[in-house]
Amino acid sequence: DGTEGWCFSHNLRLFDIRRPDAAIAENTPQTETARDELAALFLKNWQPESYLQMIVNNAIDLTRMNADYGFSLDFTQKTGWLQLANIDLKFEFASVSKDAAQSYTLVGSPISLVLKSDDLLVVTYTNDRGIPIPYNFIPIDESITDIINMEKDRRAQIFSGLLDLGPNFASENYGSLRFGSGGTVVWTDNQMLVPYVISAKSSSSGTVEFKYFVSERLKTIFDGVITINLYGSEAENNFFYSIQNNGIQLEDASDILPQDNVFLSRGASPTVMFFGKQ
Protein backbone atom coordinates (compact mmCIF):
# COMPACT_ATOMS: atom_id res chain seq x y z
CA ASP A 1 0.00 0.00 0.00
CA GLY A 2 3.00 2.30 -0.34
CA THR A 3 3.93 2.30 3.35
CA GLU A 4 7.67 2.64 3.89
CA GLY A 5 9.83 1.97 6.93
CA TRP A 6 13.16 0.65 8.01
CA CYS A 7 14.63 -2.23 9.99
CA PHE A 8 18.15 -2.92 11.21
CA SER A 9 19.44 -5.33 8.55
CA HIS A 10 20.86 -7.66 11.21
CA ASN A 11 17.28 -8.76 11.83
CA LEU A 12 16.46 -9.47 8.17
CA ARG A 13 16.78 -12.63 6.12
CA LEU A 14 17.44 -11.59 2.51
CA PHE A 15 15.53 -13.30 -0.29
CA ASP A 16 14.62 -12.94 -3.96
CA ILE A 17 11.16 -11.32 -4.11
CA ARG A 18 10.36 -13.49 -7.13
CA ARG A 19 11.12 -16.59 -5.05
CA PRO A 20 10.00 -15.80 -1.50
CA ASP A 21 11.11 -19.21 -0.27
CA ALA A 22 14.69 -18.93 -1.53
CA ALA A 23 17.68 -17.27 0.10
CA ILE A 24 20.06 -15.26 -2.06
CA ALA A 25 22.09 -17.61 -4.21
CA GLU A 26 25.43 -18.83 -2.93
CA ASN A 27 27.35 -17.56 -5.95
CA THR A 28 26.33 -13.90 -5.82
CA PRO A 29 29.31 -11.50 -5.43
CA GLN A 30 27.95 -10.27 -2.10
CA THR A 31 27.76 -13.78 -0.67
CA GLU A 32 31.21 -14.74 -1.93
CA THR A 33 32.74 -11.61 -0.44
CA ALA A 34 31.01 -12.17 2.89
CA ARG A 35 32.13 -15.78 2.96
CA ASP A 36 35.75 -14.85 2.21
CA GLU A 37 35.74 -12.14 4.89
CA LEU A 38 34.36 -14.55 7.45
CA ALA A 39 36.73 -17.33 6.44
CA ALA A 40 39.65 -14.96 7.12
CA LEU A 41 38.36 -14.37 10.63
CA PHE A 42 38.37 -18.08 11.34
CA LEU A 43 42.05 -18.41 10.77
CA LYS A 44 41.98 -17.50 14.48
CA ASN A 45 40.79 -19.76 17.28
CA TRP A 46 37.76 -18.18 18.96
CA GLN A 47 37.44 -19.03 22.64
CA PRO A 48 35.00 -17.86 25.37
CA GLU A 49 35.69 -14.29 26.47
CA SER A 50 35.85 -15.39 30.12
CA TYR A 51 39.18 -17.13 29.39
CA LEU A 52 40.97 -13.81 28.87
CA GLN A 53 40.70 -12.62 32.47
CA MET A 54 41.79 -16.01 33.78
CA ILE A 55 44.88 -15.98 31.56
CA VAL A 56 45.77 -12.34 32.31
CA ASN A 57 45.40 -12.89 36.08
CA ASN A 58 47.08 -16.30 35.93
CA ALA A 59 44.07 -17.63 37.83
CA ILE A 60 42.80 -20.61 35.85
CA ASP A 61 39.44 -22.00 36.96
CA LEU A 62 39.41 -25.61 35.79
CA THR A 63 35.64 -25.81 36.30
CA ARG A 64 35.13 -23.05 33.70
CA MET A 65 37.98 -23.53 31.25
CA ASN A 66 37.52 -26.43 28.86
CA ALA A 67 39.55 -27.16 25.74
CA ASP A 68 36.38 -28.27 23.94
CA TYR A 69 34.58 -24.95 24.39
CA GLY A 70 34.59 -22.44 21.55
CA PHE A 71 33.05 -21.45 18.21
CA SER A 72 34.26 -22.63 14.81
CA LEU A 73 33.14 -22.80 11.19
CA ASP A 74 34.04 -25.22 8.40
CA PHE A 75 33.46 -23.43 5.10
CA THR A 76 34.18 -26.54 3.03
CA GLN A 77 31.52 -28.62 4.74
CA LYS A 78 29.32 -25.59 5.53
CA THR A 79 29.01 -26.64 9.13
CA GLY A 80 29.57 -24.90 12.43
CA TRP A 81 29.98 -25.74 16.06
CA LEU A 82 29.10 -23.81 19.20
CA GLN A 83 29.99 -25.44 22.49
CA LEU A 84 29.91 -23.96 25.99
CA ALA A 85 28.92 -25.23 29.42
CA ASN A 86 25.22 -24.71 28.65
CA ILE A 87 25.10 -25.40 24.91
CA ASP A 88 26.46 -27.97 22.47
CA LEU A 89 25.22 -27.04 18.98
CA LYS A 90 26.36 -28.41 15.65
CA PHE A 91 24.66 -26.82 12.67
CA GLU A 92 24.72 -26.47 8.89
CA PHE A 93 24.43 -23.30 6.83
CA ALA A 94 23.68 -22.69 3.17
CA SER A 95 25.63 -19.47 2.61
CA VAL A 96 26.97 -16.33 4.27
CA SER A 97 25.17 -13.01 4.04
CA LYS A 98 26.74 -9.72 5.15
CA ASP A 99 23.92 -7.70 6.69
CA ALA A 100 25.84 -4.59 7.72
CA ALA A 101 29.38 -3.53 8.52
CA GLN A 102 31.01 -6.47 10.30
CA SER A 103 27.63 -8.21 10.72
CA TYR A 104 27.00 -11.61 9.14
CA THR A 105 24.19 -14.13 8.93
CA LEU A 106 24.80 -17.82 8.33
CA VAL A 107 21.82 -18.40 6.06
CA GLY A 108 19.82 -21.51 6.88
CA SER A 109 21.13 -21.68 10.44
CA PRO A 110 20.13 -20.12 13.78
CA ILE A 111 23.47 -18.27 13.99
CA SER A 112 24.45 -14.66 13.24
CA LEU A 113 27.77 -12.95 13.93
CA VAL A 114 28.93 -9.43 14.71
CA LEU A 115 32.62 -8.56 14.80
CA LYS A 116 32.74 -5.84 17.45
CA SER A 117 36.51 -5.45 17.12
CA ASP A 118 39.49 -7.47 15.97
CA ASP A 119 39.42 -9.18 19.35
CA LEU A 120 35.71 -9.58 20.05
CA LEU A 121 33.21 -11.69 18.13
CA VAL A 122 29.59 -11.80 19.25
CA VAL A 123 27.84 -15.02 18.22
CA THR A 124 24.05 -14.88 18.50
CA TYR A 125 22.08 -18.11 18.63
CA THR A 126 18.33 -17.83 18.07
CA ASN A 127 16.72 -20.75 19.87
CA ASP A 128 13.57 -22.69 18.99
CA ARG A 129 11.42 -20.10 20.78
CA GLY A 130 12.86 -17.28 18.71
CA ILE A 131 14.89 -15.86 21.57
CA PRO A 132 18.33 -14.53 20.53
CA ILE A 133 21.13 -15.45 22.95
CA PRO A 134 24.51 -13.71 22.48
CA TYR A 135 27.87 -15.27 23.36
CA ASN A 136 31.19 -13.41 23.34
CA PHE A 137 34.36 -14.95 21.94
CA ILE A 138 37.96 -13.75 21.69
CA PRO A 139 40.95 -15.08 19.70
CA ILE A 140 43.51 -16.97 21.78
CA ASP A 141 46.75 -18.16 20.22
CA GLU A 142 47.83 -20.31 23.15
CA SER A 143 46.72 -23.92 23.40
CA ILE A 144 43.90 -24.19 25.92
CA THR A 145 44.92 -27.79 26.56
CA ASP A 146 48.44 -26.64 27.46
CA ILE A 147 47.08 -23.95 29.79
CA ILE A 148 44.86 -26.50 31.56
CA ASN A 149 47.69 -29.01 31.89
CA MET A 150 50.05 -26.38 33.32
CA GLU A 151 47.44 -25.44 35.94
CA LYS A 152 46.96 -29.09 36.87
CA ASP A 153 50.74 -29.44 37.20
CA ARG A 154 50.90 -26.32 39.39
CA ARG A 155 48.36 -27.74 41.82
CA ALA A 156 50.03 -31.14 41.88
CA GLN A 157 53.43 -29.58 42.63
CA ILE A 158 52.04 -27.64 45.60
CA PHE A 159 50.59 -30.79 47.11
CA SER A 160 53.77 -32.71 46.38
CA GLY A 161 55.66 -30.02 48.31
CA LEU A 162 53.43 -30.59 51.34
CA LEU A 163 54.10 -34.31 51.19
CA ASP A 164 57.85 -33.70 50.98
CA LEU A 165 57.78 -31.20 53.86
CA GLY A 166 55.57 -33.39 56.07
CA PRO A 167 53.44 -35.21 55.34
CA ASN A 168 52.48 -35.10 59.04
CA PHE A 169 51.92 -31.80 60.85
CA ALA A 170 50.68 -31.06 64.37
CA SER A 171 49.40 -28.07 66.37
CA GLU A 172 49.16 -27.81 70.13
CA ASN A 173 45.61 -26.45 69.95
CA TYR A 174 44.18 -27.40 66.56
CA GLY A 175 45.01 -31.05 66.09
CA SER A 176 47.05 -33.00 63.57
CA LEU A 177 47.09 -32.91 59.77
CA ARG A 178 48.23 -35.91 57.77
CA PHE A 179 48.41 -35.53 54.01
CA GLY A 180 48.33 -38.61 51.79
CA SER A 181 48.65 -39.59 48.15
CA GLY A 182 45.85 -38.67 45.78
CA GLY A 183 45.16 -35.33 47.47
CA THR A 184 43.80 -36.82 50.70
CA VAL A 185 43.99 -35.43 54.21
CA VAL A 186 43.13 -36.61 57.74
CA TRP A 187 42.55 -33.88 60.35
CA THR A 188 42.18 -35.19 63.91
CA ASP A 189 41.73 -33.52 67.33
CA ASN A 190 40.33 -30.32 65.81
CA GLN A 191 37.49 -29.84 68.32
CA MET A 192 38.57 -26.27 69.14
CA LEU A 193 37.58 -25.28 65.60
CA VAL A 194 34.08 -26.80 65.84
CA PRO A 195 31.56 -25.42 64.92
CA TYR A 196 32.81 -21.93 63.93
CA VAL A 197 35.48 -23.03 61.49
CA ILE A 198 34.77 -26.71 60.95
CA SER A 199 31.27 -28.16 60.76
CA ALA A 200 30.18 -30.46 63.58
CA LYS A 201 29.04 -32.89 60.87
CA SER A 202 32.51 -33.20 59.38
CA SER A 203 34.49 -36.39 59.58
CA SER A 204 38.24 -36.35 60.10
CA SER A 205 38.95 -37.44 56.51
CA GLY A 206 38.68 -35.49 53.30
CA THR A 207 40.45 -34.11 50.25
CA VAL A 208 42.62 -31.10 49.47
CA GLU A 209 42.46 -28.69 46.52
CA PHE A 210 44.37 -25.60 45.39
CA LYS A 211 41.69 -24.14 43.12
CA TYR A 212 41.71 -20.57 44.48
CA PHE A 213 44.24 -17.77 44.18
CA VAL A 214 45.28 -14.70 46.17
CA SER A 215 45.53 -11.13 44.90
CA GLU A 216 48.92 -9.54 44.21
CA ARG A 217 48.71 -7.72 47.54
CA LEU A 218 48.03 -10.90 49.50
CA LYS A 219 50.88 -12.71 47.73
CA THR A 220 53.26 -10.67 49.91
CA ILE A 221 51.73 -12.40 52.97
CA PHE A 222 50.57 -15.85 51.83
CA ASP A 223 51.70 -18.54 49.41
CA GLY A 224 48.12 -19.26 48.37
CA VAL A 225 44.82 -20.82 49.40
CA ILE A 226 44.30 -24.41 50.45
CA THR A 227 40.79 -25.84 50.34
CA ILE A 228 40.06 -28.72 52.71
CA ASN A 229 36.91 -30.67 51.97
CA LEU A 230 36.07 -32.85 54.95
CA TYR A 231 33.52 -35.56 54.27
CA GLY A 232 30.11 -34.78 55.75
CA SER A 233 30.65 -31.03 55.87
CA GLU A 234 28.03 -28.74 54.36
CA ALA A 235 30.71 -26.45 52.93
CA GLU A 236 34.36 -26.38 51.96
CA ASN A 237 36.95 -24.90 54.32
CA ASN A 238 39.32 -22.35 52.79
CA PHE A 239 42.56 -21.27 54.45
CA PHE A 240 45.32 -18.91 53.46
CA TYR A 241 48.57 -20.82 53.86
CA SER A 242 52.24 -19.99 54.29
CA ILE A 243 54.92 -22.65 53.96
CA GLN A 244 57.72 -22.33 56.50
CA ASN A 245 60.88 -24.35 57.13
CA ASN A 246 59.40 -26.09 60.15
CA GLY A 247 55.75 -26.30 59.18
CA ILE A 248 52.71 -24.66 57.66
CA GLN A 249 50.63 -21.72 58.90
CA LEU A 250 46.92 -21.58 58.12
CA GLU A 251 44.56 -18.61 58.40
CA ASP A 252 40.82 -19.19 58.18
CA ALA A 253 39.24 -17.64 55.09
CA SER A 254 35.91 -19.45 55.14
CA ASP A 255 33.88 -16.26 55.65
CA ILE A 256 35.37 -14.55 52.58
CA LEU A 257 33.96 -14.95 49.09
CA PRO A 258 36.49 -15.00 46.22
CA GLN A 259 35.89 -13.00 43.07
CA ASP A 260 36.56 -14.98 39.90
CA ASN A 261 38.41 -17.53 42.07
CA VAL A 262 40.68 -14.85 43.56
CA PHE A 263 40.71 -13.88 47.25
CA LEU A 264 41.14 -10.12 47.53
CA SER A 265 41.11 -9.59 51.31
CA ARG A 266 41.55 -11.26 54.70
CA GLY A 267 38.93 -11.84 57.34
CA ALA A 268 38.28 -9.25 60.06
CA SER A 269 39.45 -11.46 62.96
CA PRO A 270 40.52 -14.81 61.50
CA THR A 271 41.72 -17.87 63.37
CA VAL A 272 45.44 -18.36 62.74
CA MET A 273 46.97 -21.82 63.21
CA PHE A 274 50.50 -23.14 63.00
CA PHE A 275 51.17 -26.81 62.32
CA GLY A 276 54.74 -27.94 62.87
CA LYS A 277 56.13 -30.79 60.80
CA GLN A 278 56.65 -34.06 62.61
What's the shape? elongated
Helix and strand pattern? EEHEHEEEEEEEEHEEEEEEEEEE
Nearest-integer average pLDDT: 91
Based on secondary structure, the structural category is alpha+beta
Distance between the termini: 91 Å
Rg, nearest Å? 27 Å
Number of helices in the DSSP assignment: 3
Strand content: 35-45%
Strand order of the largest sheet: 12-13-14-15-17-18-19-21
Determine the fraction of residues in helical runs and give it as a percent range.
Answer: 10-25%
- Note poorly predicted spans: 23-27
Number of strands: 21
Largest sheet, in brief, is: 8 strands, antiparallel, barrel
Overview of the molecule:
The protein has 278 residues and is of the alpha+beta class. Helices cover 15% and strands 40% of the residues. It has helices at residues 29-41, 50-57, 144-165, and strands spanning 15-16, 19-23, 46-48, 70-74, 79-84, 87-92, 95-100, 103-107, 111-117, 120-126, 132-139, 168-171, 175-180, 184-188, 205-209, 213-214, 224-230, 237-244, 247-252, 262-263, 272-277. The strands form five sheets. It has an eight-stranded antiparallel β-barrel with strand order 12-13-14-15-17-18-19-21. A six-stranded antiparallel sheet has the order 3-11-10-9-8-7. The protein has a three-stranded antiparallel sheet with strand order 4-5-6, with no helix packed on it. It is elongated. Mean pLDDT is 91; it is low at 23-27.
